[in-house]
Design goal:
The protein has 185 residues and is of the alpha+beta class. The chain contains 5 helices and 5 strands. The longest helix has 15 residues.
């Protein structure tokens, strides 16, 4: 029964095409990626959106779309080419002391609320997997906001597992004072 329901939802994504984003897609990429950040308004890291973020995003995402070291995938409605999902993937470099030395890093994944649970995230991820394999990479990594239970469940559902926790500590103004140097003997 569960498989049939999943297949039905995935079938509901008919009319959606996943394709590589181009510089002509910049407006849609900016809109989706800023919506992702705005969706995390209460998060300790992602909730601190700068007032000039839209202007900064245009320049940043324009450069990312032109980069040969990364790719942005869009899920678009075939009927009108309106984007309903985005995924960015790049090659990450690990510590020279650990394996693997290179891995695929999945970032900025977002599907508009009305298009969720239709298999779009999985279709975007399939493209990231293919792109990473073509580059000789054999592992994918990503960061998921700890306060996004639905997102974490979705990533676990496609095979990701928690490997570390990012922790944040704001510094108080008093923290700016360096500690007194210990006398050298």
């Amino acid at each position: 029964m569960r498989e049939r329901r999943r297949a039905g939802r995935a079938g509901g994504a008919g009319g959606i095409v996943v394709r590589r984003a181009t510089p002509e897609d910049l407006d849609q990429v900016v809109a989706l990626r800023l919506a992702l950040l705005r969706g995390h308004a209460g998060n300790a890291v992602y909730g601190r959106l700068r007032p000039d973020a839209p202007a900064r995003a245009r320049a940043l995402f324009r450069d990312q779309l032109a980069s040969a070291q990364e790719v942005t995938w869009l899920a678009v409605r075939a009927a009108d080419d309106v984007a309903v999902g985005v995924l960015r993937c790049m090659e990450g470099r690990g510590s020279p002391l650990l394996d693997p030395p290179r891995y695929g890093y999945v970032a900025s994944v977002y599907v508009v609320p009305e298009a969720r649970r239709l298999g779009i995230m999985r279709r975007l991820l399939d493209q990231a997997v293919a792109w990473s394999r073509a580059r000789g990479l054999d592992e994918l990594r990503l960061h998921a906001a700890s306060d996004n239970a639905a997102g974490i469940a979705a990533w676990e559902g496609v095979g990701f597992a928690v490997a570390e926790h990012l922790m944040v500590r704001p510094l108080d103004p008093e923290d700016a004072e360096p500690p007194a140097a210990a006398p050298v003997r």
